[in-house]
Amino acid sequence: MSRSAYYDWQKRPGKLIPVEELTLRHRMKKLFERSRSSLGSREMMKKLREEGFEIGRYRVRKLMDKMNLIVHQRVAYKVTTKRKFSDSVADNLLNQNFNPTGPNQVWAGDVTYCRTGEGWMYLAVVMDLYSRRIVGWHIDKRMTTDLVSKALMKAYNLRNPPPGLVFHSDRGSQYTSRRYRKLLADYNMRASMGDVGACWDNAVVERFFGSLKHDWLLKIPQPTRAHMRNDVAAYMHYYNLERLHTANGDRSPVDYENELRKVSGFS
Q1: What does the alpha-carbon distance between residue 139 and residue 222 come to, in Å, rounded to a whole number?
Q2: How are strands ordered across the β-sheet holding 119-128?
């Protein structure tokens, strides 16, 4: 820049921003920080409209550019569990139909790894596919049958589902083990398992893990296992109560279930 251009810029009057836009920008910044820089323009627009702002996606995108609110793309999900071939597997009862007509009809589970400064942690989750709500989870430093069993126990104790619920997973050794199959039988649940090498057979849970890691956990240092455990708990709260889902009509899992409860008396 030339000296004359600099002095010309310095003499220009400052641009006045209306109070309404300042309020809007402040809220956008808060929402972006709350999401750990993961809210894109589409989701930002939905959150703002939910709070009463009349705004379109073009304006949201323009303001995000001005405020330098940049979302970084997540990387591909990687499978962590492998089948023990001496164990039996269940049929695929879903065939990629991830939209049951009501809650506590189909649950899905999987395991992922979480790296900390003290070593690896492994997270098992149970998701109700109706609302995409995480109804049970457990994290530990070992990836065992006990890990997935405790996640299922927590889900069962929270929801007390009716007999006949379908539990869908991959063919990892934790899910094909005799102990886990017995637990499903004790709970009167039917096992369903995806095909070998078919990553889309549990796509909804895999997308959840992608959001958990690349929209949340990897945004800040994870020095200890205790810190990781607390941060995973924080995301579960954010995901279930605040994060909007297109499959839920742009509502959070809890809000989606609460609306059903008002209409039908579901409990």
Answers
A1: 14
A2: 133-140, 119-128, 106-116, 166-169, 190-193
Per-residue pLDDT tens over the stretch 168-201: 999 999 999 999 999 999 999 999 998 765 567 7
The phi and psi torsions of 13 (rounded to 5 degrees) equal -70, 145
Distance CA(29)–CA(52), nearest Å, equals 16
d(CA 123, CA 88): 23
For β-strands 166-169 and 133-140, DSSP reports them as unpaired
β-sheet bridge partners, residue 125: 110, 137
What's the confidence (pLDDT) of residue 266?
A: 61
Token code pair at residue 197: 């090498």
* Token pair recorded at residue 108: 């899905």
pTM attached to this predicted model: 0.78
Q: What angle do CA 104, 107, 110 make, to 5 degrees?
A: 160
